[in-house]
Amino acid sequence: MRALVVEDDSSIAEFVVRGLREAGFAVDQATEGEEGLAAASRQTYDVAIVDVMLPKRDGLSIIEELRRRGVTMPVLILSARRSVDDRVRGLQAGGDDYLTKPFAFAELLARVQALVRRATRAPEPTTLTVEDLLLDLLSRRVTRGGKPVDLRPREFSLLEYLMRNAGRVVSKTMILSHVWEYNFDPQTNVVDVLVSRLREKIDRPFDKKLLHTVRGVGYVLRA
Amino acid sequence: MIGSLAIVLLTYYLTAVSLTQRDRQILQAKLGDYTAAYLRGGINVLANTVRIEQRAAPERLFVRVIDRGVEAVVLSDSDGWDPARLETASVRLADGTLVQVGKSTEAREALLARFRAALGLVTLSIVVIALTGGWLVTQSALFPIRRLTQAVRQIIRTGRTNARVPLAGTGDALDELTALFNAMLDKIEGLVAAMRQSLDNVSHDLRTPLTRLRGTAEMALAGPSDVERYREALADCVEESDRVLVMLNTLMDISEAESGAMQLQREPVALSDVVARATDLYREVADAKGVAMVVRTGTGAQDAASQPDAVVMGDRTRLEQVAANLIDNALKYTPPGGRVEVEIGADGQAAILRVRDTGPGIPAAEMPRIFDRLFRGDTSRAERGLGLGLSLVKAVVEAHGGTVGVENEPGRGAVFTVRLPP
User: Fold this and answer.
1) Which of chain A's ends, N or C, has fewer CB atoms near its CB within 10 Å?
2) Which of A84, A180, A216 lies at the smallest CB-CB distance from B238?
């Protein structure tokens, strides 16, 4: 997978590029608009991460120009602006997703991978498995080690989301927006509560723990 | 002014014409008389008639009789007659004799000259009065506009929005414009002050968590090198910076809502949907804490079952945030085994959202400050939170044109009531 990162802030660019490389991407980097547009025109990428505020040429105009030339690669927009209008403007320019600064790298990675997955149209699985944990999307049944686990709807959604992202850390914000479709921060951490309830059911009765807390970042389901 | 000039000219013209006509009528009449006298008794009778008349009449007439091409008799002294100033009438008789009567136009000219002078004076006065009056009127009409222009220029130059344009008190359109202009300045000044205030607040409020963040990192660096300790410190830093971000976003939301700068995506929103989403979000938390959460609809202020659902024109996400924060607050202060009740209803004027808890209620001393930013009642409780939830509730509700109030129910707990215009 090839990714292009167009970002002028060197420390943000560095942690994004390093993170993507660790996740197995081949990454090219541009630090200003014209350079970014030139790189995207020269090469075919599976995904591009483009900052809005760039020297020489802003991110939205790069995306517009690429779309005008018929380039269809998925683009994730990075921006320091969080208003609905800015988000809409970004998507109208031809961006596929929009992430507001500051962001957790885990969230950026999950969004990038979702964009790539959507673009390559991998067939949807009907069951998800991690070790001996099995989730059937059609019958909505969950078993661990062959024993049925009884989950409430929100717990099921959370487990499905964690299993789809197995091996990747997902942040509380990501869980909040995927499981409840809430895009603001509730005061009490409702995610903590739901995660601990899920843990009670899928991990507690078993020796091998699957659901791990990565302090300060989020949660991960892995063998 | 042009009208008055036209009237003056017309008056003069009509006067001149009627004077001329009167002279002509006199001449025609005399001509008739003299011709009759001549026909009756020849030149002698005519001469007599003329002589008698000339003695009696104040105005001299010029009379001559020309017999067959030869000037024969002039019955009036020919001296002093200026042909240019002579109005004449004549008749040729059957025998070829021409009788001519003339009248000097001098008197008429003199009269008209005096008339012209009088009219000229009048015209001049009209012109002077009109011009002066016009100038004065324009000046007085322009004065408030000039004042307005000056005030605007002053504001642009100094960047100070506290200048105001004094009202003339006439209640006319310009006064109204001035009042509107002042009202606009009030609004701008209010917004600028609110922005400045919120910027001050935000920068102040961010200092505490940033100090904590820095302290954590510094302590880790100062201590012995130990990967586990570092990991702990870094995780603390990430969590703290997340809190800073949440705080910043919430403070910005509060400031925007308070200053009127918040963009509300208004649509018809059923409060029951809003409450269903919010209770869904907190269901697990309530269960985990052992607090029962109950939703009741159709709770009007007077008539309990009058309106089963309340619909308001509002921003769905923001209203969800209001409900979520109120429920969050209620759950925080309700001990295990307690109860949080959410009621939705409407009375004639407003949609009502009410959240009751069975907590300890709000101490009287804290009541006035409960909606203040960063105020956290009874910190010994060690409940997590930024102390911004209720401030945001108040700001968002008020941005929707509603009100939020709180009271203690004796022996039960706190009751928050949100009233939103439909």
Assistant:
1) C
2) A216
In this predicted complex, what is the ipTM? 0.71
Average pLDDT over residues B321-335: 91
Q: Cα dist. B210→B93, B202, B238, B279, B405 in Å?
A: 130, 12, 12, 33, 33
Query: Rounded to an integer, what is the distance from CA B328 to the centroid of its chain?
Result: 45
Tell me the backbone φ, ψ of residue B97, rounded to 5 degrees.
Answer: -75, 135
pLDDT for position B80: 61
Of the candidates A107, A123, A211, A202, which has an alpha carbon nearest to the alpha carbon of residue A167? A211
Tokens describing residue B210: 């940033």
CB contact under 8 A, A102 and B263: no
Answer yes or no: do B249 and A85 touch at CB < 8 A. no
Question: In one letter, which amino acid is B173?
Answer: A
Grade residue B367 by pLDDT with cuts at 50, 70 and 90. confident
Please determine, for residue B225, whether its predicted confidence score (pLDDT) is greater than 80. yes
Tokens describing residue A152: 């409430």
- Report if pTM > 0.90: no
Is residue B20 a contact partner of residue B89, using CB atoms and an 8 Å limit? no
- Any A CB within 8 A of B321 CB: yes
CB contact under 8 A, A188 and B238: no
C-alpha span between B398 and B247 (Å, rounded) = 20
Find the Cα–Cα–Cα–Cα dihedral B150, B156, B158, B163, rounded to 10°: 50
Collect all residues with Cβ–Cβ distance below 8 Å to A156 and sequence separation of at least 6.
A135, A140, A142
Give B388→chain A minimum CA distance, Å: 9
| Residue B382 in this model has a pLDDT that exceeds 50 | no
**Span B92-118, pLDDT tens digits:** 777 777 788 887 788 788 888 888 888
CB-CB contact of A44 with A16 (8 Å): no
Shortest distance, CA A138 to any CA of chain B (angstroms): 24
